[in-house]
Design brief:
BirA Bifunctional Protein, domain 2; about 40% helix; Rossmann fold; alpha+beta; eight-stranded mixed beta sheet; 16 helices; about 450 residues; 16 strands; homodimer
Chain lengths: ~450, ~450
């Protein structure tokens, strides 16, 4: 087999890949997300990346650009390369299909989390990806599901964003029935609701004036009706005041649901500064039928919504006759991370998950160096041994480049004296310790080196 | 939009999906694998699932069945649906492409781990999947890489399998140069080496008699030469004896390399019962040029190799002129897990990651119940609150079905007395505690409930 020519590797637009120092940040976020999802009793689920085309298209519309799979070998042979399969474009359709398929083997309410890549064959733009992570949680009931579930969802998101440390954030909560009921009460015809909600939902993006114009021009509403709607959604929400207004049955139901969710939030200890009721939040999807959520960074509105979701009446009507109401939320991790890097809210750090580099001065000390590494690893301290005996300066340069916090140095002299040197790579401070106190000394210095 | 007909969801052959109780086992394994990879200073890497076709085919041969991507929407429009992209079939080609592409931004030796799904359009069989997890580590040098790296690889694998608890395992180590040199010395012509190594490597599967027959018939070796080869690879390996034999320069180099790797293994504290030198291990791929590894379960040989890899001279010759020697190993997680489930070596347990279910007896106590859940979660105890007030029996049945270890019960009486009940669901034992001792009581009982 002759060597073929060199294929110059190039990035593929829309398929992001991180450098090691960036991927370590993503891994830390993934770990926090998984831990919090599990702390709130969501169980991990992973579906195949691949679904039958008919499953992805069960709603009757190709709204997303779906990637279909074909067999490359069959293509080359001139045979039929097509398959019945395509890559999933979100985690909701796969959840619906999975729950319908495994209905008898699941226990309801089914609380699952799912952290997977999804693929969309969209034209790539800044911040728009064709392969990206979604981190979803959903609580799915069998036949019915109480509103306590709607209160728990923002708690989980709050726990994650508090730990990640990305500054102040605000989870905005609403109930679509309130606005729908209000529109009904204002005499707007039912078929116009969806469009009206989309216009109102764009308030932050397009501003009040444009909302008025669009309500009037696109829906043919009178100017005073449009003004009433705008005034309603921009006013600060107050549950007592909302309850006092006689907006008809759908409106009243929405307000009652929202009030119950708020009670739950408060009982669960949700910090008041991290959430608010915002009557203009509607979410684009008709899929949502009650509670809706959206999350923004207070000091960085330009980042946009980093997490959104809501309540739906029936998860899997395309796949089963069982009625499965639920509520869920999704973090678009790849997009969020990319924007947090751009905004400087998260900063790539070291290029290694390890804290300690054990340097190797001389082949005569190699076995001792390896024993030191083994001891540190056994104590749970992530450790690398330099790959071969070399000049110390070169090894310390390597340690700096990779971002180790500490270097263990064991020269002939130290080895003979039963001691070792520990270098703090941030401060260049070097200390001398008895070999028997290896783990304690490294632990103490690692803790110091971690807080610059 | 009219409701479309119901699409009956069906599993797709070769694309495995776990039930929650199985996925929790997989998650535990993934966690152990990630932790050990990082403890040994491998940094996480994730490449796009998608590569350019020319990258996947750079070796000039389509050895695997590759899935190519096309745009479903373009298909429907009658346009050109094809793309330049396909799904990766392993993690080695993506690593090579990534290292070549980001060469200037990486620090060498580059130690990375990569845990991702890969896809192969093979005909599905028992234990053969078309979508499955691989968990890879590699240490890649720039120009050169010392043999210490070859000693570290089995240590990582040892740490993982010891923690996972799947019974006795044996990592078998060899160096391809030894067998190649021996063949050379025995007068076997060079072009026959690859085939000879494949035959010898199949020893365990096909038995000694067939190895002899194949060496004679397929390679045309004399019976006594075939016997000498068989005797050599089946004899217990002894480094001193191997060193004493004058097998020519290639043989000697292989033995010297193996001896150095063994020294490293011993200095790093590798438990002697978990590894051995086996001269018959050769691995099928010509890609490997020195050290090779294979791992079996001692009491379950039928499971086959659960982890294998080796040393290669040049990772990325298809993508760059930089010479990048390295060593790596791969755990085929999905296949391994499926076989461990089948063999009963791993058993699915609870259907929830949470330890505690807080029951809800009455709406009057709901706020107290939610406060209890919040307190437990804040203490790091994964907790679920039952979704609505219902009969206690029904809630405890739910707790049993999902596999919670403990249930917190707060009736009107307990609430008034400032106490709560804690039920151990395995023993049905119920204890009574002051509300102020919530976290301590749950911690103590959870520890007891975890050791049946």
């Amino acid at each position: 087999m002759a060597d073929s020519a060199i294929v110059k590797p190039q990035p593929i637009s829309g398929f992001p890949e991180w450098l090691p120092e960036e991927k370590l940040v993503e891994e830390r976020l993934l770990r926090v997300i998984r831990e919090e999802f599990e702390r709130y009793a969501f169980t991990p689920l992973e579906t195949a990346a691949v679904e039958r085309k008919e499953v992805l298209q069960a709603k009757g519309v190709v709204e997303k650009e779906i990637y279909a799979l074909s067999r490359l070998a069959a293509e080359a042979e001139g045979g039929d390369a097509g398959t019945e399969m395509a890559l999933h474009f979100d985690l909701t359709v796969p959840l619906a299909r999975y729950v319908a398929q495994n209905f008898a083997r699941l226990v309801f309410p089914f609380r699952r989390y799912q952290i997977q890549k999804v693929w969309r064959g969209e034209r790539p733009q800044a911040g728009r990806f064709r392969e990206f992570y979604q981190c979803d949680i959903d609580i799915v009931g069998n036949g019915a599901l109480g509103l306590l579930a709607d209160a728990e969802i923002p708690l989980v998101i709050n726990a994650i964003f508090e730990r990640v440390g990305i500054g102040r954030f605000l989870i905005r909560i609403n109930n679509r029935k309130i606005l729908q009921g209000f529109l009904e009460h204002a005499g707007v015809p039912d078929p116009a609701f969806a469009q009206a909600l989309r216009i109102v939902d764009a308030l932050e993006k397009i501003g009040e004036a444009k909302v008025l114009v669009q309500l009037e021009n696109e829906l043919g509403l009178d100017a005073d009706v449009a003004s009433t709607i705008l005034a309603f959604v921009t006013e600060e929400a107050d549950i007592a005041k909302l309850k006092a207004f006689d907006g008809g049955p759908r409106y009243q139901q929405g307000v009652a649901e929202l009030a119950e969710v708020i009670e739950g939030l408060e009982a669960l200890g949700m910090p008041p500064e991290n959430w608010t009721v915002d009557l203009s939040i509607a979410r684009g999807l008709d899929y949502y039928t009650g509670t809706v959520y959206e999350t923004r960074l207070v000091d960085h509105p330009e980042v946009g919504s980093i997490c959104s979701g809501g309540r739906y009446d029936d998860l899997a009507s395309s796949f089963t006759k069982q009625r499965l109401p639920g509520v869920g939320i999704s973090i678009g991790l790849t997009r969020m991370l990319s924007r947090l890097f751009d905004a400087g809210l998260l900063t790539p750090g070291p290029k290694t998950p390890a804290a300690v580099l054990v340097t190797v001065m001389d082949r005569a000390q190699l076995a001792d160096c390896l024993a030191i590494a083994a001891e540190l690893r056994a104590a749970g301290i992530a450790t690398e041994v330099y790959s071969e005996p070399k000049k110390l300066g070169q090894q310390l340069k390597y340690a700096d480049q990779k971002g180790f916090r500490l270097a263990v140095i064991l020269g002939e002299e130290e080895a003979r004296a039963g001691r070792f040197l520990l270098k703090n790579l941030a401060t260049a401070e070097q200390t001398d310790h008895p070999r028997a106190e290896l783990v304690e000394a490294v632990r103490a210095q690692a803790a110091r080196a971690a807080t610059p």
